[in-house]
Amino acid sequence: MTMAARLESDARLLxxxxxxxxxxxxxxxxxxxxxxxxxxxxxxxxxLLAVARWRGYRRAAFWSGVLALAWFSHGxxxxxxxxxxxxxxxxxxxxxxxxxxxxxxxxxxxxxxxxAQRRRL
Length: 121
Fold this sequence. Notes:
It is built from five helices and no strands. With 121 residues, it is mainly alpha-helical. The protein has one domain (3-120). Helix 1 (3-28) packs antiparallel against helix 2 (35-54). The longest helix is centred in the last third of the chain and has 27 residues, at 86-112. It is globular.
């Protein structure tokens, strides 16, 4: 697999997980009293990062990883404190972990890949 093809597959996974996270937040906060504020705070950032990464903005992957740590923390907090929202929170945790892995994979592969794979990069 060439470097360009591998980067594209990494970008697809990251974009898909960010879009799923935005959809999850949209469903989660659909009936919230301050719906537009909740959607702007929670659903808009992953949506904007997905669009930015899809358009080739490489720093979007870094910021996705950084924000995924906050999404992970939020999901853990909600899962522990609000039993009625536990399934949304667990889905947020899983998607945040996928975002962290997808945004870090190219760097991990470059650092820990075999020598033959690193030479091809």
